[in-house]
Amino acid sequence: LDLDKLPIKRLDAIDEAGNEHYPPDTSSEEQRLAAIRRVDFSWVIWQWQGLMESLQQAQQELTVVLDLISTVEANDAVAVTTTSKPKSLPNEVLDDMAVSAATKLQRLRHLGRYFKQSAKTMEQQFQKEARFYGSLIRLQQNWKVKRHRGSDSFMFDVVDTSQLDTARMSSMSLVPIDQDSSGTLSVQVPQKSCRFLSLQLRGAAENDALENNKSVKHAHSILRNIHKSIFEEQVFDMVIRETFVPSQGINVTGMREDFLQLAIGQENLLCLSLEHSGLNPKSLEIYLLHMFHENILRKVREKDCNLLGHFCMTVAHRIFSNKVHLELESVVSRVPYLHLQSLPTWHSRTSSWSLCLRVPQPILAADRSQFNTKVILKDGQISLMGEGSPSIAGSLTRKPSDGYLINSYNCDLEDLPTMLLQQVASQVINWLHEEALVLGMNVTRDFLCLYFDLDQGDTLGLVAHVDPDDAYGCISWYLTIDHSKDGKMSTDRRFLGYLSLEVLYSTLMDLINLCS
Amino acid sequence: MSKAGGGGGAAAGPTAAAAAAAAQKQRALLQKADADVASLVDNFSALINIARVNDPPVRNTQEAFQMEMRASRMVHSADSLLKLVSELKRTAIFSGLASLNENVDRRIEVLSQQAEGTDKMLEKIGQEAAASLKELEAHYYSSVVRTPLYD
């Protein structure tokens, strides 16, 4: 260990006069030389020491030999001639050559092994790269490839980032590419990133996991899933954003990071969430995605259209439409001569049905054989349009094509069965009335009643009675007789039952015969 | 980011500077390939020469060292050529944009037609479903099931 003195001026001596003597400044050259001298080269010298000593020894021996030769020559005792190795015998030559050849051969074999090993390694490397780049170029036909910043690796850019406006999704859109030891390309799905939109109506969703083996197809499907997932996250974001604008009839009753719950009207609850399932989309999910697809990706958005409102109205309409349909079926199942027809409207918020009253084809009046009542549901509003007869409640319009009157009016779900039955019953009465008129009878009609005049001032009535809650049939018939005897009115009623139209027709004929 | 690749595919689009850079790169790669191949050939012929069994005096050790050196140089050149191939493949991925764009356009065309076709098919299916529904309803409501037992 060697310590430098501090580079401060140290006092050399003080003379009698009190003057201080400092050592003279060393020039920079001297300082450098001093520093060099301080460096210890002994380790280097030590390595070459052996070589130096060998050379010195060789030189000494050579000097000795030369001295000896010159001494001997000087003494003239003997002449020194050079001599060389004696000529080898043929077998010695061959031996030497054989050894030489064998050595060469061994070296060449060694080289051969080296070349084979290198070739194998290079072959593997080449195949690995060929596999990787081949897959990458095939995938590039469908997906955008980008170089990873700085390094030599690649990524897929799944979505055009100009379409995204949240940070969470731009991190999802760059998918890193890996390769394994045999060069097979694999696509890394980031954790917790691949989520799909799931729409339930107060139900629970299933969770499923997919496992696959690796291949280009698998890479395609992973990328496609990520692509889809990004779009569905966008849809979810847009839906949430639309809820910030209050709209009528739609209330947000729950919101979390990936979950939205909406109450539509009073009764319906819609839950929209982002989950890892992504299986079994219902038709509403498809509709929601289709709607937003047109708006986000194809930019065909009309101004001021409220997508979420429209969608929620669609959901509400579908639910209500099912209820209306059940009511209609319930009515029609208890009136045998009514047929129900569903009329597709191809509009997401309108549904329509037709109740068809088929009358038996009479011989005399070759007019119409059916009367229709149309039920139209727009959003939540039910309207009825019935052909054929005037009714008490409702406005009348004349349909020019066939000269029949049409009633149209709105009603509630609770009133629907009653109004329908009244409409149908009045159509039956209308038909009976027409038939009687054709036969020349003098009959009058009321809303649900057909009157025949009897002798003696009595009136016979065929009355329709509607009851939507009657389990046997919704339309039943009574026969009434109004006696006016001595100025007093009395009425007898007789229940006829749930008559079919054929029986009604023959009853009509009987009554006509009775009255004429 | 993609760079304009070597060769003729980069005519339209990049600037003159990019085109010049591409040509320069192409020359450099060709030179490198030539150099590597020449090195392979040279070292191999030298190796063959050294492999000759000499008459004495024999310089086996010296020649052994030379052989190893030549062999190692050959492997090095081969490796360098492989790396060149890799680099070409990487460049190929980010060039040829014209043909990629064409391909994308073609795919868009095909997929649009598919979408149209699917829409038409859906329409047709809807109409068929409506027709079937009508038929089924008519059958149901005029079938025996519906006639009441009392009457």
From TrEMBL, chain A:
GO terms for molecular function: transcription coregulator activity. Keywords: Nucleus, Transcription, Transcription regulation. The keyword Nucleus applies. One of its GO terms (biological process) is regulation of transcription by RNA polymerase II. Transmembrane segments: none annotated. GO terms for cellular component: mediator complex. Belongs to the Mediator complex subunit 17 family. This is RNA polymerase II transcription mediator. The lineage of its organism: Eukaryota, Viridiplantae, Streptophyta, Embryophyta, Tracheophyta.
TrEMBL record, chain B:
This is Mediator of RNA polymerase II transcription subunit 22. One of its GO terms (cellular component) is mediator complex. Pfam families: Med22. GO terms for molecular function: transcription coregulator activity. One of its GO terms (biological process) is regulation of transcription by RNA polymerase II. Its main location: nucleus. Keywords: Nucleus, Transcription, Transcription regulation. It comes from the Eukaryota. It is found in: Nucleus. InterPro entries: Med22. It comes from Brachypodium distachyon (Purple false brome).
